[in-house]
Specification:
By secondary structure, this protein is an alpha/beta fold. α9 crosses α10. Helix content is 46%, strand content 13%. The protein has 2 domains: 49 residues, no CATH class; 256 residues, TIM Barrel.
């Protein structure tokens, strides 16, 4: 009402402007008759042309829009690359759809219903054995390829015969991994074209591309050495982004207890798992058999276990003999990709119980 009263007083005070307003309404009526409702979209601009400034302005009031406020945030960086830092933002994908569905099913019906529904894929404890460092010794590589095909073989990218041996392993039915050299703590040389914390994201990606070209048919990757690199968040983020683009998985060999590789891989959406047991830190038949027994214990306790060994003669002999009886003991020998999926499902079950 106040707005109408102010317009009425303005018209009575100024006949010229009153004529302008009459012309405005006449023009608007003709436009609406000719163009229909679409002409109304030009009404604000037409009003600004024909009416005096301020006539159409909203009256001041307490309900007007609030001004935007920008608050600067100053994040202090650590003095060293190992100090506490803010992570580079990455897209988090969470659990894949099939795991999300299982979490919902478990929360609604309980784990017993999950088993009764037939949704479990591995009723027996599953064990995956990975033999890495393959390719330097050709005879040792051939002996590893002669193992049961459920044994996963991980090839270093730099030996001259790595490409040919990886192709043979894939034809024999083994799952093949890239055993990617990474920077260790100390001065030990991880090998040519290794990943170092001093490299840029583009340089890391280029080295990964060359390595994957050298190991054809690689379904995933695990780290060779890398006790320093796998603790470096910036470097690991760059690597996991490159693996995500290739749609391959990552197995953390866990050469460093503080490794962030598997954690960041899952945040970015790269399927990832972690080694549970090293078979041959001590290269002796008795010690290797003890570690195989430890692998069985972990599998019974957690439903799945991943063990890593190397192509030493004693390791290959022990794994060959052990694998003949593994199913009779109640275990299922699986490739490492299957084991990583089972680890993820185990984590989903744990999450569902919260």
């Amino acid at each position: 009402m106040r707005r109408i009263e102010s317009i009425r007083r303005w018209l009575l005070r100024d006949p010229v402007q009153s004529s302008a307003l009459a012309a405005f309404w006449l023009l608007l009526s003709v436009a609406l008759l000719v163009a229909g409702p679409s002409a109304a979209r030009g009404l604000p601009a037409l009003a600004q042309m024909l009416l005096p400034p301020g006539l159409m302005a909203a009256q001041a009031g307490a309900s007007g829009p609030a001004e935007k406020m920008v608050m600067p945030v100053d994040v202090a960086h650590g003095e060293t690359r190992y100090a506490t830092q803010v992570l580079t933002p990455v897209p988090a994908r969470g659990f894949p759809d099939w795991l999300t569905q299982r979490v919902a099913f478990i929360r609604e019906h309980g784990e017993a219903a999950l088993s009764a529904s037939g949704q479990t894929d591995a009723p027996r404890p599953a064990i995956a054995i990975v033999i890495d460092d393959v390719g330097i010794d050709v005879e040792a590589a051939r002996a590893a390829i002669a193992l049961p095909r459920k044994i996963t073989l991980s090839f270093l990218p730099y030996p001259p015969d790595a490409t040919a041996l990886a192709r043979v392993a894939a034809r024999r039915g083994h799952q093949v991994l890239l055993h990617m050299p990474m920077e260790p703590e100390g001065r030990e040389n991880p090998g040519p074209d290794a990943l170092f914390t001093t490299l840029t994201a583009d340089e890391l990606s280029e080295r990964l591309n060359r390595a994957f070209q050298r190991v054809p048919n690689a379904a995933g990757m695990n780290n060779h050495m890398g006790s320093r690199f796998t603790q470096d968040r910036e470097g690991v983020i760059a690597v996991m982004r490159a693996l995500s683009a290739r749609h391959v998985f990552f197995l953390d060999s866990r050469t460093a207890p503080q490794s962030v590789a598997a954690e960041i891989a899952r945040i970015i959406g790269v399927p990832s798992g972690m080694r549970d047991v090293f078979l041959d830190d001590a290269v002796a038949p008795g010690a290797i058999l003890q570690q195989l027994a430890e692998t069985e214990r972990v599998a019974r306790a957690h439903g799945v276990a991943i063990a890593i060994g190397h192509p030493h003669p004693d390791t290959l002999k022990a794994v060959a003999a052990w694998s003949r009886d593994v199913e009779l003991k109640g275990f299922e020998l699986v490739d490492v990709q299957t084991a990583i999926g089972l680890q993820a499902e185990r984590d989903a079950r744990s999450f569902a119980r919260r």
